[in-house]
Amino acid sequence: xxxxxLGPPPPILFETALPIQHLHPARxxxxxxxxxxxxxxxxxxxxxxxxxxxxxGFPEYAACYLGTSLEVAxxxxxxxxxxxxxxxxRLTAAHFQRRYALYFDGDPLHLLxxxxxxxxxLGGSAELTxxxxxxxxxxxxxxxxxNPSRFDGFSFxxxxxxxxRAVALFDRARSKMALARYAPLVNAAGFARxxxxxxxxxx
Length: 203
Fold this sequence. Notes:
There is one protein chain. It is built from seven helices and twelve strands. It has a five-stranded mixed beta sheet with strand order 1-8-9-10-5. The protein has a three-stranded antiparallel beta sheet with strand order 2-7-11. Strands 3-4 form a two-stranded antiparallel ribbon. α2 (70-76) crosses α7. By secondary structure, the protein is of the alpha+beta class. The protein has a domain at 25-81 and 101-183. The mean pLDDT is 95. It is globular, with a radius of gyration of 17 Å. Residues 39-181 form the RES domain. This is RES domain-containing protein.
């Protein structure tokens, strides 16, 4: 039996205040080619939880994607479209040398937990992060953005590292977090461990 397709977000997600998950920005990490303008909130519409279209000619929100560990951030960024060969990701060192691990500080973020029992009670499933079609996940993200709790974003199980959590933030969270420090990715704390766990081999 195949997985049920992800349906549209339920009315409760638009209309009813839901429990808030508090997360400090210091628990988040982002992999980026830049240190200026971070955290970066994009409006391309090409990512899973980007705003699905425009209102009055503009996207309703911009989105930023982060991990709760360096492993998640790597899996969801550099390794996102890569295919392992015999259990290893064989990539040039340049893929990593021109990127940074970014760490943040600020005020606690107010998130919706879109995983586990909460996701099930809302009528969702792993298809939220598993479907290759982004149209419906973007509708869910817009529903969270519209919720009266005014969430800063939401947490979810990473598709590419499915024992870890990722976070999608709306640009209303911009004032709550700031770049605290950064390091060249290959020199970042925990990179060697993440490289081993993910099977990253430099060519």
